[in-house]
From TrEMBL:
Residues 354-384, 394-423 form the 4Fe-4S ferredoxin-type domain. GO terms for biological process: electron transport chain. The gene is rnfC. Binds 2 [4Fe-4S] clusters per subunit. Its main location: membrane. It comes from Clostridium thermosuccinogenes. Part of a membrane-bound complex that couples electron transfer with translocation of ions across the membrane. It comes from the Bacteria. This is Ion-translocating oxidoreductase complex subunit C. It is a peripheral membrane protein. Keywords: 4Fe-4S, Cell membrane, Electron transport, Iron, Iron-sulfur, Membrane, Metal-binding, Repeat, Translocase, Transport.
Length: 439
């Protein structure tokens, strides 16, 4: 079936899905992995290993007793060679565990298929598995799957939209692991007692739609929805509206309208984890961009330095001038190829000089294109103006925190104004002010 609603705004971006036909290739064990203690939204983990410790695959190396957090596991066997704070994009310093690998990939004794007989036990297993939202946000999955009792959830949406240009890792996951995806969905239907499941996929992936529609044909609880390819179709609020017509109010969560959204990768992981007990230690990553010699989809151990991943695919065909973790619309620019692949990394893009050029900003001509493109009904030009002026009160009035940082406004701006960058800065300034006891 096709979608019934179309969200307001958004942009038609070129797809550049060059790697859609590239089967996932498994990368070997790197010489070392670099594993930061924050790979999720919520409280950071504390290292529970020390320098010189021997560790095995699947062993917990970082944890927190806070509810909104997610444990971190070793993706390799080897020796802990360093524990120190390291600088990551955004100027954030994060405690990081470095492990020199021994190539044996010995599996830790804690890795055994888990058993559960209640929802509570299931959620505890999910928590201990280290699963976070694999669609990009990194929200701990056990929290997402535990809506408060006064917010009954009747609908589960599986996000296979993958609306960012270049990225095909979810698409490959559907093609290569469809059985795990359906198996994970069935587990969630039992545990969450939802009435209906929708799998949302953009119409530029007809093979994925056909495959999953065929498998779910006889199942009246699961439907595949063909979504119009329009960015940011895969953002939670847009996806929920497109499929159910329900609007998540500003500042509210999907559970407020009776919905939980999970990424295709996440449900597939749940199925595989329940069979093996192996926690989240690997990711499928799309490697592409004008500077990349051989665009590919690669299964990578979490913590693998980006340089190793690029080298594995054949390296660069020209000097990379911009490297992004994630897609070109929402990805985070990297300043070092020694940064590691994280739990929610879905793409590594490297662009040459011509594509990396940032055009100079010119004054706003008040054309209103950014307003029309904003799927959250915000006024990006006014947000930009007030961030630059330091008008903090006005930023609240303009609902800056409703911005999902999709970048649609920057994409359409004829004056090339750095709208989303300034909004991110404004949000960070408001957070700092709040931490100091301001608004
Ligand atoms: S799109 Fe750019 S030029 Fe047009 S109103 Fe928005 S900020 Fe101004
Ligand atoms: S203001 Fe935020 S939500 Fe609106 S288009 Fe710009 S980045 Fe997207």
């Amino acid at each position: 079936m096709s979608m019934r609603n179309m969200f307001k705004g958004g942009v038609a971006v070129p797809h550049y899905k060059n790697t859609a036909g590239c089967s996932t290739v498994k990368m070997g064990v790197p010489e070392k992995v670099v594993i930061p203690m924050v790979q999720h939204i919520g409280a950071p983990c504390e290292p529970v290993v020390k320098k010189g410790d021997n560790v095995k695959v699947g062993q917990v190396i970082g944890s927190s007793d806070k509810y909104v957090s997610s444990p971190i596991h070793s993706s390799v066997s080897g020796v802990v060679s360093d524990i120190s704070p390291r600088l990551y994009p955004g100027g954030v310093s994060v405690m990081t565990v470095e492990i020199k690998t021994d190539g044996k990939q010995e599996i830790h004794e804690s890795v055994t298929p888990p058993k559960y007989s209640s929802k509570k036990e299931f959620l505890e297993i999910i928590r201990q598995s280290g699963l976070v939202g694999l669609g990009g946000a990194g929200f701990p999955a056990h929290v997402k799957l535990s809506p408060p009792p006064d917010k009954p959830v009747d609908t589960l949406i599986i996000n296979g939209a993958e609306c960012e240009p270049f990225i095909t890792s979810d698409y490959r996951h559907i093609i290569e692991n469809s059985d795990s995806i359906i198996d994970g969905i069935k587990m969630l239907i039992d545990v969450l007692e939802v009435k209906h499941v929708w799998i949302g996929i953009e119409d530029n992936k007809p093979e994925a739609i056909k495959l999953l529609s065929g498998i779910t044909d006889e199942d009246s609880t699961i439907d595949v929805v063909k979504l119009k390819s329009r960015y940011p179709q895969g953002a939670e609020k847009m996806l929920i509206y497109s499929i159910t017509g329900r609007k998540v109010p500003p500042g509210k969560l999907p559970a407020d309208v009776g919905v939980i959204v999970m990424n295709v990768n996440s449900v597939s992981f749940i199925s595989q984890h329940m069979k093996t007990g192996m926690p989240l230690i690997k990711k499928i990553v799309t490697v592409d961009g004008s500077a990349v010699k051989n665009p590919s989809n690669v299964e990578v151990l979490i913590g693998t330095p980006l340089e190793d991943v690029f080298n594995f695919t054949g390296g660069f065909k020209s000097e990379p001038r911009k490297v992004l973790m994630g897609g070109p619309m929402m990805g985070i620019a990297q300043f070092s190829l020694q940064a590691p692949v994280l739990k929610h990394t879905n793409a590594l893009l490297a662009f040459d000089e011509a594509d990396a050029k940032v055009p100079p900003e010119s004054p706003c001509i008040r054309c209103g294109k950014c307003v029309s493109a904003c799927p959250m009904n915000l006024l990006p030009l006014s947000l930009n103006f007030n961030v630059l002026k330091g008008n903090m009160d006005e930023l609240h009035n303009l609902h800056i925190n409703d911005c999902i940082e999709c970048g649609s406004c920057s994409y359409v701006c004829p004056s090339k104004r750095h709208l989303v960058q300034s909004i991110r800065l404004g949000k960070a300034q408001l957070r700092q002010a709040a931490a100091k006891g301001g608004k």
